[in-house]
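User: Could you go from structure to sequence for me? I need the amino acid at each position, not a summary. Structure tokens:
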């Protein structure tokens, strides 16, 4: 089986019309809610399934589309209402094709709220709707300087604790970007990179040994700039000033590779050479198939004649990759961490 753990909902236009109403009215009209016609849900899901068939994907985990999650909007109530509507749309697509889709929750990560306030929606999705994972935005401020701590800070610990208890992995994925200095795609890669560095410099996995975190889009820039972070980690332990009070003894070095070892990465880098480098850098046992089909990688690559997101074929082309490691990436790793599958 080919199991894709990074996909997003294909939903009728009525869902996004509801989002526009929430933003325009700022909640003045109340929650109202949205009803998605079953025939339109089915039609959108069928088109999605046809694309999965072409990409060689048997099962895909789907969440709300991150750039639509509007975490920096206000008041917080409309973010909460939109998260619930989005998750219900995901549930409707799963219900339409239960053999092809599993749900991944979006959280109401409104700026000014705390992780404790997101847990009700998490539990609704996991316990009541049967979702198997959760999407976590590492920057709810969406590129604005609004004082949200980076992932790895203890501020996030209530969420980490509940994820560990529920056995639910987090897919780290930035949402929209309101910083005029960068666009959404740039911000997404920046936040993935920052997440890896922040986790590597934190005690998160020591404090939550059962927590499973997957960083989207191949870990951002980190696997491709890993030499810098290896050197930086080494310098932290070799500066003369750091040895004061240690009688000249050098503290035991925890390498950067060891620090990121608990982290998983998806395969969504859209380039065969980058994909091979990612696998060689972090290990096949830390890479999960993620394609985002259909998504921004769906245009056809003129050099190959295949969509950029045809990652299943890219994996098949890596002739140095063993069949056992390829199977880990295509299914085994996801099976091992998504306990609720």
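Assistant: Here is the amino acid at each position, in order:
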């Amino acid at each position: 089986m080919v199991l894709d753990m990074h996909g997003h909902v294909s939903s009728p236009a009525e869902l996004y019309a509801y989002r526009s109403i929430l933003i325009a009215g700022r909640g003045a009209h109340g929650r109202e809610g949205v009803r998605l016609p079953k025939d339109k849900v089915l039609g959108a899901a069928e088109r999605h399934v046809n694309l999965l068939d072409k990409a060689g994907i048997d099962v895909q985990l789907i969440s709300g589309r991150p750039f639509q999650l509007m975490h920096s909007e206000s008041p917080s109530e409309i973010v909460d209402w939109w998260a619930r509507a989005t998750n219900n749309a995901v549930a409707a697509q799963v219900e339409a094709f239960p053999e092809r889709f599993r749900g991944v929750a979006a959280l109401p990560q409104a700026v000014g709220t705390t992780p404790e306030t997101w847990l009700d929606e998490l539990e609704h999705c996991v316990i009541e709707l049967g979702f198997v994972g959760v999407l976590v935005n590492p920057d709810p401020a969406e590129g604005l300087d609004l004082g949200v701590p980076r992932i790895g800070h203890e501020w996030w610990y209530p969420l980490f604790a509940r994820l560990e208890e529920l056995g639910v992995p987090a897919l780290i994925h930035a949402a929209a970007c309101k910083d005029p200095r960068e666009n959404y795609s740039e911000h997404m890669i920046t936040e993935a990179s920052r997440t890896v560095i922040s986790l590597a410099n934190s005690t998160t996995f020591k404090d939550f040994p059962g927590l499973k975190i997957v960083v989207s889009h191949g870990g951002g820039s980190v696997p491709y700039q890993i030499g810098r972070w290896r050197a930086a980690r080494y310098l932290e332990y070799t500066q003369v000033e750091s040895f004061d009070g240690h009688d000249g003894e050098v503290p035991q070095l925890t390498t950067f590779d060891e620090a990121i070892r608990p982290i998983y990465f998806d395969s969504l880098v859209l380039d065969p050479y980058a994909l091979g480098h990612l696998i060689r850098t972090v290990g096949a046992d830390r890479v999960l198939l993620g394609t985002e089909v259909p998504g921004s990688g769906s245009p056809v690559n003129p050099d190959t004649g295949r969509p950029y997101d045809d990652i299943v074929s890219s994996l098949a082309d890596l002739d140095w990759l063993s069949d056992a490691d390829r199977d880990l990436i295509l299914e085994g790793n996801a099976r091992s961490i998504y306990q609720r599958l």
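One structural detail worth keeping in mind: Residues 242-246 have pLDDT under 50 and may be disordered.
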